Amino acid sequence: MEGKRIEDSNIVMTHVMLPQDTNPAGNVHGGVVMKHIDNAAVTVAIRHTRSNCVTASIDRLDFYNPVYLGNILILKSRLNFVGKTSMEVGVRIESEDPYSGVVRHTASAYLTIVALDEKGRPKEVPPLILETEDEIRRHNAAMARRKMRVEERMKEEKKKRIFEGFKKKT
């Protein structure tokens, strides 16, 4: 399978935050931002694989600054890592005051996205072609996060097996 460049799937999405996106104080709900993050990440994965993709997990989501009614939400999304059937997509979220032009870093997130075949099963995805030092740095950091996710999943599965064994005894 031929590799693809990271820059070929990068996206920037923008959305104006409207009254239905906010609470009574005019702050945008975190869930609204999360929905846009998910859409941005899956869109990048679809562009890379040219197939249906679904979110498997959100590894990390940190909010740094609030978003207000009328702000422009800016989502910058890019691939960091590609495995056999899954990908890590990083999303940087900014909010812009359209009147002052002030842009603030609002949040950052890492999502694991899985490509699916026509039958809804995981499918192999094109490898990444890493071209810059920044892409290599992001790729290496994503590999470290992936290793931690796999280790954590193994710990959870072990706990589950122990618990299931305990339930059978009682």
TrEMBL record:
GO terms for molecular function: long-chain fatty acyl-CoA hydrolase activity. It holds the Pfam family 4HBT. Keywords: Hydrolase. GO terms for biological process: acyl-CoA metabolic process. It comes from the Bacteria. Residues 7-119 form the HotDog ACOT-type domain. CDD domains: BFIT_BACH (cd03442). GO terms for cellular component: cytoplasm. PANTHER family: ACYL COENZYME A THIOESTER HYDROLASE. Belongs to the acyl coenzyme A hydrolase family. This is Uncharacterized acyl-CoA thioester hydrolase CT_535. It comes from uncultured Desulfobacterium sp.
